[in-house]
Design brief:
This protein is 28% helix and 28% strand. It is an alpha+beta fold and 450 residues long. Helix 2 runs parallel beside helix 3, helix 3 packs parallel to helix 5 (175-185) and helix 4 (132-140) runs parallel beside helix 5 (175-185). The two termini are 21 Å apart. Bound molecules: shikimate-3-phosphate and phosphoenolpyruvate (PEP). One of its GO terms (molecular function) is 3-phosphoshikimate 1-carboxyvinyltransferase activity.
């Protein structure tokens, strides 16, 4: 069922400093959206720099199953001949979204206002994640969903025959829920409105505008109100996918905690809805600079330079920053363990419903590595041991979660004893070149047979 391979134990240990330039792959969030909107446009969309990680490849397959003509032209170069808004055809088989919450939730939204049925599944991680957060608003459009108890995959969505536009307030800070509503609204007549209390990543809104849809974002007393005018003809685009700031976080944080390191990570998007980690690291006293700051495709971009930072201090991370760094808490926790004092991370309950319960996964793993942590349902606290202070010496369960696997490998690069993860294979979902890229910088990661 899972698209990634059999379990692969990996161990990281301290070696020399990390030095050099790390070219991380394309942004995962933007790659999913480029394929989905390309499939809903009329004509050929060309994509450059697409992330060829398993999550995104599963979305490419799903778009083909729904009738789009999707082809790889070269490394990172893709062509999508779209079928137009409302033009999806019924897939002949189950759509397997592998490990990807973004993939399954956005695709459910995109097909929910077309009169077809589709059945979705995924790997054991994705089958444990809640889908009600998406199927609740999709029901307001007239779509029906039948899944396992608790709104879990496998699940069949019966698309609405006569979709109605929707006015929806998202109950949790989630770009996936917001995006599912907007994508469903594309094939509903009139205006679909989605309001979110806190701003989440806005790639769907930006890209919809690029494809010619009318999308207006207003800041109101209730938060951000996004209004989409339904049934546009989406015009095919040439899309260059920026490099992934969430992947950049790993070599950046590794450089901060490994003695003597100096690493450049070029061309990273600093969209404010994504860049919360970098603000947090600078508040901790990290030696992290933004070089060559510029604008590309309407997005702020910079080259990140990270150097070993032996005097970082623990901080209070503002709860309202959580949506702008939600995927970065695991690696921040590793940095916090290598800082002096306490780092308190409130407002992070959404971490409990990611690829794994990330609060529990980090708590169990860090404790096994000799770090004191506290958790509540909604918060995580790390008692830092200072630079080089983490004992390590544990094997940590990655729980089918790429970010947990990468975080503990980086933990091992700075710890007194090596750290292993029982299964590094999920890393390929978002960062397929993580191992060679880190090795090129000087890190030592070895594979073994468990
Ligand atoms: O919309 C997206 O591309 C994503 C949204 C976030 O999830 P939520 O919407 O569940 O917060 C994030 O964790 C995920 O990695 C990617
Ligand atoms: C939460 C993540 O992804 P998704 O929800 O798409 O599985 C992630 O990449 O950290």
């Amino acid at each position: 069922m899972s698209s990634h391979g059999s379990a692969q134990k990996m161990t990281a240990r301290a070696s020399g400093p990390l030095t050099g330039t790390a070219h991380v792959p394309g942004d995962k969030s933007i790659s999913h959206r480029a394929l989905i909107l390309g499939a809903m446009a009329v004509g050929e969309t060309r994509i450059t720099g697409l992330l060829e990680g398993e999550d995104v490849l599963d979305t490419a397959k799903a778009m083909a199953a729904l009738g789009a003509d999707v082809n790889q032209l070269g490394p990172g170069e893709w062509s999508v001949h779209g079928v137009g808004v409302g033009g999806f055809s019924e897939p002949e088989d189950v759509i397997d979204c592998g490990n990807s919450g973004t993939g399954v939730r956005l695709i459910m939204g995109a097909m929910a206002t077309t009169p077809i049925s589709a059945t979705f599944t995924g790997d054991a991680s994705l089958r444990s994640r809640p889908m009600g957060r998406v199927t609740d608003p999709l029901a307001l459009f007239g779509a029906q969903a039948v899944g396992r108890a608790g709104g879990k995959l496998p699940m069949t969505i019966v698309g609405a025959t006569d979709p109605l536009p929707v006015d929806y307030v998202t109950p949790m800070a989630s770009a996936q829920v917001k995006s599912a509503v907007l994508l469903a609204g594309l094939n509903a007549p009139g205006q679909t409105v989605v309001t979110e209390r806190a701003a989440t990543r806005d790639h769907t809104e930006r890209m919809l505008r690029g494809f010619g849809a009318e999308v207006v974002t207003e800041q109101t007393e209730d938060g951000y109100r996004i209004t989409l005018t339904g049934q546009p003809e989406l015009k095919p685009q040439e899309i260059t996918v920026p490099r992934d700031s969430s992947s950049a976080a790993f070599p950046v944080c590794a450089a901060l905690v490994v003695p003597g390191s100096d690493v450049l990570v070029p061309n990273i998007g600093l969209n404010p809805t994504r860049a919360g980690l970098f603000t947090t690291l600078r508040e901790m006293g990290a030696n992290l600079t933004f070089e060559n700051e510029r604008e590309e495709g309407g997005e702020p971009v910079a080259d990140l330079r990270a150097r070993f930072s032996p005097t970082m201090k623990g901080i209070e991370v503002p709860a309202e920053r959580a949506p702008a760094m939600i995927d970065e808490y695991p690696i921040l926790s590793v940095v916090a363990a290598n800082a002096e004092g306490i780092t308190h991370m409130p407002g992070v309950h959404e971490l409990r419903v990611k690829e794994s319960d990330r609060i529990d996964a980090m708590a169990v793993g860090l404790r096994a590595c000799g770090v004191t942590v506290d958790e509540t349902e909604d918060s995580f606290t790390v008692h830092g041991l200072g630079a080089g202070g983490v004992p390590g010496g544990a094997t940590v369960a990655a729980r089918l979660d790429h970010r947990i696997a990468m975080s503990f490998l980086i933990c091992g690069m700075a710890a007194q004893e090596p750290v292993s993860v029982d299964d590094g294979s999920p890393i390929a979902t978002s960062f397929p070149i993580f191992e060679p890229l880190m090795a090129e910088l000087g890190a030592q990661i070895v594979r073994s047979n468990g």
